[in-house]
Amino acid sequence: MAYLTHIALHVKNVDACVRFYQNYAGLRLVRDRQVHGKHIIWLAEPGKESQFIFVILPNGPGHQQSQNDFSHFGFALQSKAEVDKLANKAKQEGILLWPPKQEAFPVGYYCGILDPDGNRIEFSYGQPLG
């Protein structure tokens, strides 16, 4: 059996993406490396550093996604209030994609936010996986 261990994002601005995932998703720095002159960052959820990481790679082209493409990363939060708080913060920063919305089980309550590279990030409450 195979296990998903990481996702690597090739981004335009490493520092902006690291700040976003730290501030919005609470990810923590696991590794900060220089490889062949390139700054590579590993981020993980606290306590899950050996289970799953986000690798942030430099010099990416920027993420372009059509309006009808709902590909995204999903993060679970502890309450609807937390979803609302992040949505309000994102709205103030001009990066709110989908305002908070309640849908039937198993979707729950969620909002969508754009990371600095244009990736769509869902923050939800009430999904059975989170």
UniProtKB/TrEMBL annotation:
Keywords: Dioxygenase, Oxidoreductase. GO terms for molecular function: dioxygenase activity. Pfam families: Glyoxalase. CDD domains: VOC. Gene3D superfamilies: 2,3-Dihydroxybiphenyl 1,2-Dioxygenase, domain 1 (3.10.180.10). GO terms for biological process: response to cadmium ion. Residues 3-126 form the VOC domain. This is Catechol 2,3-dioxygenase. It comes from Pseudoalteromonas denitrificans DSM 6059.
